[in-house]
Amino acid sequence: MTSWKEWKRKQPYAAALLTNSMKKNRLSHAYLFEGSKGTGKMGIAVTLAKTLFCPFLDGVEPCNECSDCKRITSKNHPDVHFFSPEGHSIKIEQIRLLRKEFSYRGSESKRKLYIIEHADRMTQSAANSLLKFLEEPNEHETALLLTEQIQQLLPTIISRCQTITFNPLPSAEIRRMLIEEYNIPTSIAYLASAITNDYESAKARCEEEWFAQARKLVIQLMEEILERHYQVLLTIHEKWIPHFKEREQLELGLQLLLLWHRDVLQLKLGKEDEMVFIQEREKLEQFHFRFTKQQVIKQMEVILEAKKRLNANVNPQLLIEQTVLKLQE
C-alpha cells in the first residue's frame, strides 16, 4: 500500500498540500484532482480516505491493516462512496443517489467522503445536480473529483473546488516502481518508461509478450544494419511486418528505433546514464564507432520523417522498407 511518504516522492506538491491541510485540520470541502492517466490521482484519493477514517494513525499515515483501511481498499466502507461512469457517462441518477446517501449521518462516524472518477464525463444534468451539492458544503463532508480532462468540467464546478494538478511521473520513478514493486526485468522497465510518462500504460506494456518481442526485433534489425545488411529486407518481410501489423504498433516500432539511435547519440555526448537499451551497451558502442554524430542525427531525422509519413496514410510495408534502406546509407 502506498504511504504519504511515497506520495511525497511521486507527487510532492499534492502530497504536501493535503497532508499539511490534514495536520492543521483545514481540509477543503471539495478537491479537484486533475492530471493525465497514471499519475496517482485515485491512489492519493484512497490514501486520503484512509487517513480520514483509520483509527490507528501514525501522524497522517494510515495503518493499512485495520478494518477501515481494508474496506476502503476494497471500496466497501459505508462512509466512503466511489462513483465512476456507468457506460460512457456519470448520470444524474448517480448524483441523486450520492445526495441521498449524504443526507444521512455517517454510518460509523460523522464524516463522509465521496470520490468521483472521470468527473468530466458527467452529463449536463448530473453536473448541475452536483453543483447544487457543492454549493451547500457540510463541514463533515469531503468531495474528491478526479479528471484527465479538466476543460470538460463546468467552470462553476471548478470554481467551487480546490484544484490540485498531478504532474507526469519522471521516467526514473516509473522505472523504480516497475522494477521494485512488480519485479519487471530492468531492460523492459527502462524501455517502457521511455515511451510513456503514464505509469499504468508503462506497466501494461511490460506485461505484454508482444512488447518484449518488439524489443528483440529492434535489436536484431539494428544488428543486421550494422553487420548483415544483406538480410535486412528478409527480416522486415518475415518478422517485422508480421509483428508490427497495426499502424499503432508500427508507430511504436519506429519509436523504439528512434530510442536506439538516441542511445547512440547519448554515448557520443557522454550521457550514458540517460540510455534506455542499457543491456545492449556493446552493440550501441559499435554504432557509436561506426557512425559520426552527424550521421546519427541524420538517421534520427529519417525515423522522425517516417513517423510523420505514417500518419499520412502511406503503405506501412513500403514505408519501413524505405526507412531502413535510408538508415543503411
Describe the structure.
- Pfam families: DNA_pol3_delta2.
- GO terms for molecular function: 3'-5' exonuclease activity; DNA-directed DNA polymerase activity.
- InterPro entries: DNA_pol_HolB, DNA_Rep/Repair_Clamp_Loader, P-loop_NTPase.
- This is DNA polymerase III subunit delta.
- The protein is 57% helix and 8% strand.
- Helix 5 runs parallel beside helix 6 (124-134), helix 9 (186-195) crosses helix 10 (199-206) and helix 12 (232-243) packs antiparallel against helix 16.
- It has helices at residues 4-10, 12-23, 41-53, 67-73, 92-101, 124-134, 155-159, 171-182, 186-195, 199-206, 209-227, 232-243, 247-268, 281-290, 293-310, 316-328; strands at 30-35, 80-83, 112-116, 141-147, 162-166.
- It folds into 2 domains: 4-166, Rossmann fold (3-Layer(aba) Sandwich), CATH 3.40.50.300; 208-328, Zinc Finger, Delta Prime, domain 3 (Up-down Bundle).
- A 5-stranded parallel sheet has the order 2-3-4-1-5, covered by helices on one side.
- With 329 residues, it is α/β, with parallel strands linked by helices.
- It is elongated, with a radius of gyration of 25 Å.
- Helix 5 links the parallel strand 2 and strand 3 (112-116).
